[in-house]
Structure prediction request, 121 residues.
Amino acid sequence: MPHLRIEYSTNIACRFDPALLVQATADVLVASEVFSPPDAIKVRLLPVEHFRVGSGADHGFIHAGLSLLSGRDGDTKQRLTVALVDAIAPLVGPGPQVVQITSEALDMDRDTYSKRVLPGA
Prediction:
């Protein structure tokens, strides 16, 4: 916990380095000091091939959906989502498409969230 799922439209895939995007967003979450231990942070990057933005113009998007255990206050969630957008934006290079970068924080029900950590070999 937390889970960060970053979706992006495939029409902008050549405009950023996937590994750098994952690292930068993970660094934001670690630096926030909201999550302990930091090894509980999970970040995944998911391409979206079939999408439509608005009127169908050739726009692209990157959306960072942050799932957190319930109980965090609104100011903390806002600080995290703003930091994620601010970290992602400079990583997107120039190109012909308008790119919308968004982030949201969603609560996971603390009472029903389950987790098991298996030891490594």
User: Anything to note?
Assistant: The chain has a mean pLDDT of 95.
